[in-house]
Amino acid sequence: MVSLIIVGFGNVGRSLADIMLKDREYLHKTFGFNSEIRAICELKGALINKNGIDVENLLKLNDISQSSDWVPDKTALDVVKEVDADILVECSWVNKDTGEPAVSTLKAAMNRKMHIVSSNKGPFYLKYKELKEVADKNEVMMGMESTVLSAVPALAAKTTLAGTHIKSIRGILNGTCNYILSQMTQNGSSFDDALKEAKDLGYAEADPTLDINGYDAAGKIVILANVFLGWDKTIKDADIKGITEVTAEKIEQAKKENKYIKHVCTAKDGKLTAGTELIPMDSTLAVMGSLNLVEFETVHAGPYTFIGRGAGGPEAAAGILSDIINISLLKF
Amino acid sequence: MVSLIIVGFGNVGRSLADIMLKDREYLHKTFGFNSEIRAICELKGALINKNGIDVENLLKLNDISQSSDWVPDKTALDVVKEVDADILVECSWVNKDTGEPAVSTLKAAMNRKMHIVSSNKGPFYLKYKELKEVADKNEVMMGMESTVLSAVPALAAKTTLAGTHIKSIRGILNGTCNYILSQMTQNGSSFDDALKEAKDLGYAEADPTLDINGYDAAGKIVILANVFLGWDKTIKDADIKGITEVTAEKIEQAKKENKYIKHVCTAKDGKLTAGTELIPMDSTLAVMGSLNLVEFETVHAGPYTFIGRGAGGPEAAAGILSDIINISLLKF
């Protein structure tokens, strides 16, 4: 039985609880996996039940503070000190410049010998090395698959492509950018109309600044470079451009040359870049809509390309659950 | 130090030895990985050196029986009984109907508590369940990533996509078929000319029958279905069609409908199929040339698509090496 603390119960946290409930039998049969949630931390308090929270009834509540397990004014840090668990899952709101409060929560959990799994990328594009040192010191695992393209097994390639010798990485790492550029390319939409559609469909945030200025995508290429290429960079080292200067005219001009304009991030030759590029129409990078993609160029066997949905509650939750299952297979 | 026995020293076996030699420092630094090859088995004898074969000098020989480590008339089975090693790597010639001699070698090695890694798919599309039982009984691992699309981490998705709940699988699983159809589609080549080019480029075997009749691709979907969907099927359960009835006219007709003709294998609703299908031009399945592709449809998060080179000596060797490294990370 794997015991969990979940920090953050928005779209991702709820999806995770929902999937673990619905797939309980499948997960037991397929991976010998059984779990219980001992605490769920929110901004204004926490649910705590050391015998396991009743998830089925909890998911019926719109406001989880109505649950009898609710303790007001408990912070995630309080919970980490008081509740024993195997794994802490971090999917709360995070300050993009400091990575807090997640960085402190993750460190405290690892120092209490908990493994951690996070869908928040802030802590890792800001303080990867620091967190890795705490993990190594405590001999615990850091599951961070969902920080880059949700459940697309990009970070897992560290081991799954171990024999290929990865030498550089590029990718289409932001679904909002790709959706906007695809709508402009395929349907002749204006930038503003495509952005509005992306918001309506839930791909873009209410404030999409960090998507369209390239910052979100850049954070992901920083993490990929540090994990795969052994670099020690932060987002401040990246050359970041967004998609706000793409016009209908530029897209039409590209199409005349049998090319698409795509927002591409690259880690190569010591440099981290994010910005628009002209991509041949028959390239594997020519994926459309909100799909994301990562491509590893290798020394021995050419490129390997992984494509999938890079955002969304169930998608991020599925990636978190993959990490949890893998930790449970290796450690328990 | 991970010790190896390699069975088969053709293109794949040589590539493996070559990569491990060239990447020695990289592998040590990146994965803490060190290896030595204690035996290499060929049809007419074996190289044996319990202190580790001198690979650098061996690779200079065209005929490895010239090495001072050569013992004539030793079979792989003899070697498994006489030489201690952590992992046996199987990349020899295999009978497509019986899986021999590889099946016997693999079983003997596992019964001697060696982990196994194989790029041969015959043993697994014929006798997966039997081999799995021997592995489980002896508590050893079976690395079989290279049996399906070489180093493309298709089988690794069992754990890397664990949280997504895979419900069906489809793929473009034979590079020769994809190359031929791509040449007919993009360059208007005839079937025969495209097949000849595929042979010249080394994608197709001298006898390409098993490629173009769909048998090779079907073997891979059988393995995928057994691993991911918990089925217990052999290649005899698959409905197999090839590409020999594709004509220039059919391809032109498809293009008029904005579609490509592709050779697609599917495992869905209890059925295994291999044959040609019409694929929309903007589908993720529309990969060209000799590239291969596998797509997992999931319950929680849509499809995940992996693309890469599915054949070739270094490509298969890179997949074998990924398996070896992963076993070493988990077991030693």
Automatic annotation (TrEMBL), chains A, B:
It holds the Pfam family Homoserine_dh. This is homoserine dehydrogenase. NADPH binds at K121. GO terms for molecular function: homoserine dehydrogenase activity. The active site is at K220 (proton donor). PANTHER family: HOMOSERINE DEHYDROGENASE. InterPro entries: HDH_cat, HDH_CS, HDH_short, NAD(P)-bd_dom_sf. L-homoserine binds at E205. SUPFAM superfamilies: Glyceraldehyde-3-phosphate dehydrogenase-like, C-terminal domain, NAD(P)-binding Rossmann-fold domains. The keyword Magnesium does not apply. Its EC number is 1.1.1.3. Keywords: NADP, Oxidoreductase. Gene3D superfamilies: Dihydrodipicolinate Reductase, domain 2, NAD(P)-binding Rossmann-like Domain. Belongs to the homoserine dehydrogenase family. NADP(+) binds at G8, F9, G10, N11, V12, G13. Signal peptide: none annotated. Residues 158-325 form the Homoserine dehydrogenase catalytic domain. The keyword Oxidoreductase applies. GO terms for biological process: threonine biosynthetic process.
